[in-house]
Design a protein that fits this description.
Layout (H helix, E strand, L loop, with lengths): L5 E5 L5 E3 L20 E4 H18 L2 E6 L4 H10 L20 E7 L28 H16 L2 E4 L2 E7 L20 E4 L2
Parallel strand pairs: 1-8, 2-4
Antiparallel strand pairs: 1-3, 4-5, 5-7, 6-7
The structure holds the ligand C[C@@H](N)C(=O)N[C@H](C)C(=O)O and zinc ion.
Zinc ion (ZN) binds next to strand 5.
Length: about 190
């Protein structure tokens, strides 16, 4: 069994900012589908995320803002029912890397907490969100490139169709979960990004 355990990602010094969209109704489902707004990940992925946050801060004085981390399979099914296009929502029959606790949706924020302009909003399900999309300003291209370089240096791989989605390492080695981790979060270890 190659799974590392789930951990709750925390950030005592705010190097990471959490804005878990699916814990609110500000998302494409127009409903809060998580019971809590804690970012859960496999421990290996959490440690890699910590590395990415350190890199963002040391190299660019930027911070990472997380939109999504672990996602239970039942939520994936609900998403796919609404957007049955695997370029934008993974087919629950195969499982998303979010369901395995090894994917993150995120962006970069500046010292004032303002999101860098990436050319589209989070969960814009169109060609404009793709890494290959060229009709962007030089600043938008440079912002996407910064995020890509930060995440790659920490062992994450991009999803071609979504600038905000990154999978950690050999992500399919982690098994799919449908656990409601909020229910057990007091028992989980933490990885603090400080
Ligand atoms: C729904 C979107 N935020 C996302 O994460 N899409 C990828 C393809 C996924 O569902 O794994
Ligand atoms: Zn994602």
């Amino acid at each position: 069994q190659s799974d590392s355990s789930f951990v709750a990602v925390t950030s005592s010094e705010n190097k990471l900012v959490f804005d878990l969209k699916y814990a609110t109704s500000d998302n494409f489902l127009k409903a809060a589908v998580y019971d809590c707004s804690t970012c859960f990940l496999r421990e290996e992925a959490a440690i890699a995320l910590k590395k990415a946050a350190t890199r963002a801060w040391k190299k660019y004085k930027l911070r990472l803002k997380l939109f999504d981390c672990y996602r239970p399979l039942a939520v994936q099914e609900r998403m796919f029912a609404l957007v049955p296009n695997p370029e934008y929502v993974a087919d629950p029959k195969k499982g998303s890397i979010h369901n395995r606790g090894a994917a993150v949706d995120l962006t970069l924020i500046d010292e004032n907490g303002i999101e860098l302009d990436m050319g589209t909003s989070f969960d814009h399900f169109g060609v404009e969100a793709a890494h290959t999309y060229q009709n962007l300003t030089e600043i938008q291209k440079s912002n996407r490139k910064k995020l890509l370089s930060i995440m790659k240096s920490a062992g994450f791989k991009p999803l071609p169709s979504e600038w905000w989605h990154y999978n950690y390492g050999k992500s399919r080695k982690f098994s799919i979960s449908n656990a409601n981790l909020c229910a057990t979060k007091e028992d989980l270890n933490k990885v603090d990004v400080n």
